[in-house]
């Protein structure tokens, strides 16, 4: 298995590097945005978004959950995780929407 992985990495390195560059750029932008915001501002923004998109109860649950994340000292790790999820979501949408439209039009 290791030999096969080494072969793929050695032969497709330029392709992997080309994929990595935009992913790193978007990921860095999300991380800077999320880690650059003061935690209380981010907590209020996320709680208001949850309240508007879902229900007031979801907004309160989001508020309490994010306060607990901050209280246990895991805020920066949570924001890095959120940046990873948002980056993955963005690339899934960018690839999935055109693919879905194309497949819907094909017979």
Automatic annotation (TrEMBL):
Q: What biological process terms from GO does the record include?
A: choline transport; glycine betaine transport
Compartmental location: Cell membrane
* Leader peptide range in chain numbering: none
- What is the superkingdom listed in this entry's lineage? Bacteria
Record-level Gene Ontology MF annotations:
amine transmembrane transporter activity; carnitine transmembrane transporter activity
**Keyword list, A-Z:** Cell membrane, Membrane, Transmembrane, Transmembrane helix, Transport
According to the record, the segments passing through the membrane are 29-51, 58-76, 82-104
Gene Ontology cellular component? ATP-binding cassette (ABC) transporter complex
Residue ranges annotated as coiled coil are none
Q: Among its keywords, does the record have Hydrolase?
A: no
Q: This protein is called what?
A: Proline/betaine ABC transporter permease ProW
